[in-house]
């Protein structure tokens, strides 16, 4: 892999010519709820949207605006999802783009829109439009952290990462902020991720890279199996690094793609770790499947099992539930070949070998499971394809957060 | 529908020539753990088995023995699933059938085997075989309730139903016992159901009827989305009613099938109601889908959503999560046409109409949701196909039961 440097204290506004802000507009009671990300220079953008048939209004509008060859801003509100709000909701999402565009001297089509929060309520447009106008006066090259805060719902920490690498001797910065599975009554988990870069890349290649990268990162995490109406990942590149433009799958594309994969996986892991009520990050490494599809089916089946997730909350070395969830994954494999181990900084312990239990040190298992990060390693010994999935345990707090009236 | 009489206090041993027992053999500490169901007369049997690739040893053996044209007994142990136990497990399951056959004067092939309980531990065969011998001396025409008890794991009540109807002026009895999603560390939920009848039916037609009936009953319930290694439904018919044999899809087949459907749906609902930690039975009535597949996909997506289930535990009229789960169901429908209502003995309340929220009486919604049985009625207004699915809420106790070390 090309030398990739993680820049610990940097964020999206450390990428050249990107500015941002996050403010409190009044949709939420106290916390920041409105974010603008802006590139001073022209930029290409690519996006992936929820597959949910009830796509929220901002998804509809961003699907329209992403067609533009220039995308210079994203406006995001939290606290209200603008979902299931009918034609009025669509009008309001277009209005958010237009107000932002007017303030920043752009055309509406150059602005993308995202929302997260309560579903089914009309957006309070007086508050939102005033908020956007206010935010546009505050965007700055130090506003990245405020931006990361303003997109949160019940997230317990901001999610951000910045990496640096070289292309043609030019310094490329790639930085992302994300929000995870937060719940505001009456709503569902929503995942949003915004990635910016100074890389010089064509819109088509950015789109291909983003799509491929999402399949191995955000699409491999599960908090509770529910796909929101508002999920969205957007990538923007303003080309100011002046590297030779990436317009085919050349060496530079591969280097960029590796950096993008790393960044998206790290953001995906942060989202999994901050799943509602989560006490542990669980990583499933599925090795040696016959096909990539089988590898992904197996890894996602394990990470999505409520029984597996409850067992991890209980710190219970329950290989039975793990192999059971493999068994109903619809993947092809040979049950009699399977090995299962747990691993983390405490150690490594094999629980299951060649399709049967092996006796193991219960004390060591307990110590491994008491940690916050646990890797489940599954070897199908059936081929050469691997996949990794991330998730969290299922705790009392998940139920508490999501059963608001009784809690 | 043919006149179907529910016989409140009857059970499987009230069906002519069926005997049964349930005893404590010693696999569990105190509670009954071994059950035998026996037909004194020759009988045909049909069965459906788990689709889990890690099918337990009793599944393997019963799949073999169901080939026999005569099936006169089922031996079931609870407390140990005999799953992931390798060749030794298979030998042990065959041995359970042989011991039962020897005691009852049958051949091994005439006995089916089922297990539920801890996964991955060898069956204690000395205890099991002694238990079977003991049980065979105790089978009787009053042992049905003990049998229903002996197949339980963490079920909180026995599940049984008996119905009566006429075919050719002959009295047909159809009776079933079942167990639901119980958890014994370290194990997963297992569903078992055993149905017996005096109906005269060919093995082929019994098999067709059972298969079709399962698709609309057991396959439409969800407690936590996990499919066990040991799931099994068995139907046995000893033909002693002397009706004209059902050997084609004639009128009598249709009458029998209706009774079987009713019985299986009632058992399925009891299983859903007794899901681990459940406080409510939720029924999803999905109406007017374009295809049956779409109807089932929608109904199962709603009943399987952790967010919907948590909202019901919280008695929260959260239509947003319901339409969201429809949205990711992979079914075809038009979001702008959808209606959603809640209904039960308290009343009926519409929350969502033509794809949008409608204002509703919060007090009435609260009262409806405070009941133990709630029907979610969804109208897609897109065709003529309907499906019903059953499930339960997701409570603190689900997590508690399944996170054994911390609870």
TrEMBL record, chains A, B:
Q: Keywords assigned by UniProt?
A: Acyltransferase, Amino-acid biosynthesis, Arginine biosynthesis, Autocatalytic cleavage, Cytoplasm, Multifunctional enzyme, Transferase
Broad EC category: transferase
Which InterPro entries is this protein grouped with? Arg_biosynth_ArgJ (IPR002813), ArgJ-like_dom_sf (IPR016117), ArgJ_beta_C (IPR042195)
Localization, per the record, is: Cytoplasm
> What EC numbers are recorded for this enzyme?
2.3.1.35, 2.3.1.1
Q: Where is the active site?
A: 190
Reaction(s) catalysed by this chain's protein: L-glutamate + acetyl-CoA = N-acetyl-L-glutamate + CoA + H(+); N(2)-acetyl-L-ornithine + L-glutamate = N-acetyl-L-glutamate + L-ornithine
One Pfam family this chain carries? ArgJ
So, what pathway does this thing act in?
A: Amino-acid biosynthesis; L-arginine biosynthesis; N(2)-acetyl-L-ornithine from L-glutamate: step 1/4; Amino-acid biosynthesis; L-arginine biosynthesis; L-ornithine and N-acetyl-L-glutamate from L-glutamate and N(2)-acetyl-L-ornithine (cyclic): step 1/1
Q: Where is this site: Involved in the stabilization of negative charge on the oxyanion by the formation of the oxyanion hole?
A: 116-117
Fetch the CDD domains from UniProt: OAT
Query: What's this protein's family per the entry?
Result: Belongs to the ArgJ family.
What quaternary structure, including any partners, is listed in this protein's UniProt entry? Heterotetramer of two alpha and two beta chains.
Q: Which HAMAP family match?
A: ArgJ
Please report the name of this protein according to its UniProt entry.
Arginine biosynthesis bifunctional protein ArgJ
The gene behind this protein is: argJ
